[in-house]
Amino acid sequence: MLERLSWKRLVSELALACLPALLLGLLFGYLPWFLFASVLIMLVWHFRNLMRLSHWLWIDRTMTPPTGRASWEPLFYGLYQMQMRNRRRRRELGNLIKRFRSGAESLPDAVILTTEEGTIFWCNGLAQQHLGLRWPEDNGQNILNLLRYPEFSRYIRQRDFNKPLTLVLNNQRHMEFRVMPYSEGQWLMVARDVTQMHQLEGARRNFFANVSHELRTPLTVLQGYLEMMNDEVLNEKSRVKALQTMQEQTRRMDSLVKQLLTLSRIEAAPVIDLKEKVDVPMMLRMLQPEAETLSGGRHEIHFHTDPHLKVFGDDEQLRSAISNLVYNAVNHTPEGTRIDISWLHTRHGAEFKVCDNGPGISSEHLPRLTERFYRVDKARSRATGGSGLGLAIVKHALSHHNARLDITSEPDVETCFTFTLPARLIVNSEIRENVTH
């Protein structure tokens, strides 16, 4: 183990260097000259080691220091140890920065590191994706020059970060910004995409507004007739009409509540176990007379069913999806329309299709048909008792069976509502594939 450099060691080295000069001076005389020569030799030796040290530090820069003797040996070794510690600390700091950046990249939020003046010195991938930043091109840029929104500029300049800032960007994303001190003179800026949350909140508000409106209309009718019956004596004709109207509105409310409960139950259902056998042909045989009764002879209804095509799934949810599609076709197409309902095996799976040759649906309405309470013709839907929930029920029921509803419409030619259950849900699918081929 090397000893550290001390004044005692330097004095002892000086004494050892002067001892030969002292002995020679005693033997031959000229003691001052011998002492001068010893000190001069010692200075030259130290100067040479200084040059070696300078060369190692500024030119050579290798990890291994030059070899040293006497007082220079602990000095070289100490510098070497200090260099090793610095390298180790830089390596640890580099690993820490890598871990921080890796963690920041894994966050579901955009992360930006800036100075208090707003100068960017790092951002993660989501900041580039959501906010349009570029890295490393934007290193050193001021964030106020890149995010040019008046609300954002005021938020940063006021430096009141107790509350987050929600900003609608040019790409229609809703971003929630939070700023917090990161270290001395630095800020950590976190931006979260809350677009979906705003959409869900808007859907929730619309849902309650629509439910309130749908229930208010029949309740208003009932209240009006009850007040009329309380204020005056109705003749038989008026009494019968009032009772019929109130019964219709009661049935309408009852249907709306049932559909709301069905939709809520389907939405809240966990991932269903698709092992229950569903006899869809039997379901359609029971549904056919109901559809014909509902039509009252106003439509030409045809069923095309594969009698052996059964599937695995949830009986209640599939029944809701299929019956809603059939009833919609009967309720929302005019008299004289031909309605074709098919349940057949295709190369993609088990396909259910309802087609009609009615007036059709304009293309701008097609993407929104499965929204709750959305109606193409509100007046006609209310006249036929529609609640605007049927296709929403179909959509959610099919999502639990890994299927989706496809809607196509060519006005005055053909409108089709189609879904296909995957082949793996068909009972005895392998046998059926062999028979088909």
From TrEMBL:
Pfam family, one: HisKA
The keyword Ribosomal protein is assigned to this record: no
Domain PAS: 96-172
Top-level taxon in the UniProt lineage: Bacteria
Reactions this protein catalyses: ATP + protein L-histidine = ADP + protein N-phospho-L-histidine
Bilayer-spanning residue ranges: 20-45
Cross-referenced PROSITE patterns: HIS_KIN, PAS
Compartments where located: Cell membrane
Stated role: Member of the two-component regulatory system PhoR/PhoB involved in the phosphate regulon genes expression. PhoR may function as a membrane-associated protein kinase that phosphorylates PhoB in response to environmental signals.
NCBIfam families in the cross-refs: phoR_proteo, PRK11006.1, sensory_box
Name of the protein: Phosphate regulon sensor protein PhoR
Native species: Candidatus Pantoea multigeneris
